[in-house]
Amino acid sequence: MFERFHGACVSAVCLLMVACLLSNGTVRSASAEEAKKSEKQPGDVAHKANRLARETSPYLLLHAHNPVDWYPWGPEAFEKAKQENKPIFLSIGYSSCYWCHVMERLVFMNEEIARYMNEHFVNVKVDREERPDVDEIYMTALQIYFQAIGSPQGGGWPMSMFLTPEGKPFAGGTYFPPTANEGQLDFPTYMRRIVTAWKDERETLVKNADILTSYVRRTVKPGLNLNPVKLDHSLTAAVSSAIIESFDPQYGGIGFSEESPNAPKFPSPVRLAFLEYQAVQHGDAKAAEALDQTLDKLAAGGIRDHLGGGFHRYSTDRQWHVPHFEKMLYDQAQLADVYTAAYRRTKKPLYRQVAEETFDYVLREMTDARGGFHSALDAETDGVEGKYYVWSADEVAALLGADNAAIFKRVYGFNEPQVFEHGYVLHVVQPAEKTADLEQQLAPMRRTLWEARNKRKPLLKDDKILTSWNGLMIRALARGGAAFERADYTAAAEKAARFVLTDMRDEQGGLRRTYRGGQAKLNAYLDDYAFLIDGLLALNETTHNDEWLGSARGLADQQIAQFWDADGKGFFFTSNNHEELIARTRNAHDSVLPAGNSVSVHNLVRLTLLTGDAKYRTRAEETLAVFAPKLQESPGVMAHMAFALGVFLDESQPVSKAATPLPSREGLGEGGTAQSPLTSPNVIPQRAVERLAAKPPEEEQKPAEKNAKKKPAHKISAKAFLSVDKLTKGGTCRVVMYVDIADGWHINTNPAKPDKFIATEFTLKSKQGTTLTNVQYPAGKPVKVPGLNEPQHIYEKRAVIYGELKVPETVAANEEELELSVHYQACNDKSCLPPKTFKLEGKLPIVGKGEPVKQINQDKFPAKTKPKVSAK
After folding, report:
1. Distance CA 772, CA 765 (A)
2. Mean pLDDT, the chain, as a whole number?
3. How far apart are CA 436 and CA 161, in angstroms?
4. Distance between CA atoms of 539 and 545, rounded to whole angstroms?
């Protein structure tokens, strides 16, 4: 994530800091023995509450009874440091961080250590998930600091930084143990050296802090774009090559290095999503191979929770066997989305199973009653990481019986050596296809173990609701609802979106970052806006409810007004009215999350297509231009920017060429949002639609000649859904027509623009005089066509048309025969076909006024369907 830093100034930092602080030791990671010692014991002393007791963050509340005199991040702490002329000790972590808990128990609960901290420092505790701006700045400072002193360490949490009263960093580390061990530096010794240096060499420390702060500011903001980089697919190809080069061919995974093969492995969903884009949009076979092998290995590994669904944060080994056991909402959202997209491409049952299990886990265990999604589940029980999830062979035998246990143990790795000290971690030994015939036996066994596991001591949950992470989950559920025809997923996404849009706003309508205990607080960041807009656009694409498009557009306009860098282009991470920190970051490097700037580019491209407003495209292009040099220089760390660039380039092609669908819209044809009337239980009853079958135009029903080149059977297909299961005499009901358009083809809008084109038209014929009224056509996509003075407006991929059926009061029959038709002209980049008509036919019962009628398909009829153009 971070570059190496060189130069005279950093060398000076190195010499001074080493001389002052690290001449006789280094910081180190905690050991298993220390972790064991950190387990809370009965009778541990309880301390009175400190200032953190007034916070809402579960992580801060965990420290509310430390003897350390903690301050939350804010002006009170900095003012005290200035008044008392003390350095600040800044500790940053998060609630599901295992080693954060270890340091809390071993260090911050130590009376003697706490007394020294309180005497010599102003101590500030930060939840990195609430304050990602503070975390990013000081993590950058720590990385630069480590490089300056020649330390091989990387960043991590808990992060421990020492600052001047002005907030400028001058030294730090990650985990510090309470006592020295084998020459490695302990926290009390490190603090004493800081105190001595602050007393005797303060001028030197302040100079070091100024230099380090200068480098932080330079790092978090891209330099001047003196040599513009051309925006083309050579950049995306380079990113694909860089990602595939880091692929582990034996065990799957991205970011693998032969030099350190046993390093921890992260799922890297951001890069997996880019590989999916490459595979689908550009037919990249290598990308598909690397992606699918990784998904197969993740699905089989211990990093996946085979009983409860979902994924743990990362694997401690190359084989994905033993995970770091916490569960993060952002991992569930992104990995479920990746598996959903992979299922659409491959139709592999395993991918659907993994995605649905992950969605179901989130809805069952990480969903707030108000609709938002909680942040994380802890990794430890009684100080032991993974204790909640692992098993002994005897436990399994007792729960399943000898015969079933033998099968279960063979499939889930109990016949292999136990590699995790606290028990067996479930993982699938053989490929899924080799155990498919056992699935009917294995499913109830997993259920039995899951029910037994639920009786164990529950894990700590971080139940704060973060806007950005909720945006990721809303997007994933919306797309999952479409792909798997799961109305519950779509409904959950809509409920969460309404909660965030309603309860996580300030008085001016701006977004808040976090919500817990009935309180929304902290200014939202770029990621909050970008990820939520992404989720709202996914909801719009799934439900065709323009409410979500309107909300997304409103937030995008707020984002541009509050975050746009008018001088350097691109978006700052913090808004214009945010508190002033030592740096204002603006970058596009991915972490475990996609970069906010890259998600914003993707959003802006989609908004351009949906609204026809060119200002969004301009902002997207300017953002791409400012980060293109970094993308060219470091392709492996900006996968989502490459994805956004690819979408931008694909959608910038003239309409006369077969437009590439946005990845967020893939699968919106057969098997997408529209559920099949003949298979789904949530659509018109079978008796009402058994003849509501597609009747293609006669010209497209002719059998192909024996040696003719194969062509698509027809250029459009259609499905219709009603809002009731019976028609009522003198009554009305709503109807929606989904018109799906073949790749590379388009049809004209209604009204047609320019008017010389043939408009798409939705009509009705009926036996009993039922009429079609209040027809509402979507606005379509404006495109420039050579030779035309004004844009042509077209429908691509899918057009959704709403209307109402009105039944005469005087009708005598008890059945109505309907013929719904779509008249259209299909064109591609070479020619336009003759106008044709696609028909749907069926019979529906008619009942008298007052007789019961069932409301159905309500998810397809938004409460307020606002036409983008005048109804015809």
Report:
1. 9
2. 86
3. 51
4. 8
Distance CA 814, CA 807 (A): 12
pLDDT one-digit tens code per residue, 559-578: 999 999 999 899 999 999 99
| pLDDT per residue as tens digits for the range 127-180 | 999 999 999 999 999 999 998 888 888 889 999 999 999 999 999 999 999 998
Please report how the helices 546-563 and 596-611 are oriented relative to each other, as an axis angle in degrees rounded to 10: 130
Contact 21, 197 (CB under 8 A): yes
* Closest listed residue to residue 221, CA positions, set 615, 592, 601, 581: 581
> Residues 77, 50: contact at Cβ < 8 Å?
no
Alpha helices in 634-682 (DSSP H): 639-651
Q: Categorize the per-residue pLDDT at 690 as very low, low, confident or very high, splitting at 50, 70 and 90.
A: very low
Element (H, E) at 328: strand 327-328
End-to-end C-alpha distance for the chain, whole angstroms: 54
**Alpha-carbon span 664 to 300, nearest angstrom:** 27
The strands making up 732-741's β-sheet, listed across from edge to edge, are 716-722, 732-741, 798-806, 771-776
Q: Which two tokens stand for residue 550?
A: 């309107």
Collapse the DSSP code of 735 into the 3-class scheme (helix H, G, I; strand E, B; otherwise coil) and give the result.
Answer: strand
pTM: 0.74
Q: What is the pLDDT of residues 71-127, one digit of tens each?
A: 999 999 999 999 999 999 999 999 999 999 999 999 999 999 999 999 999 999 999
Listed in sequence order, the residues at least 6 apart from 651 whose beta carbon sits closer than 8 Å to its beta carbon are 605, 608, 609, 659, 660, 662
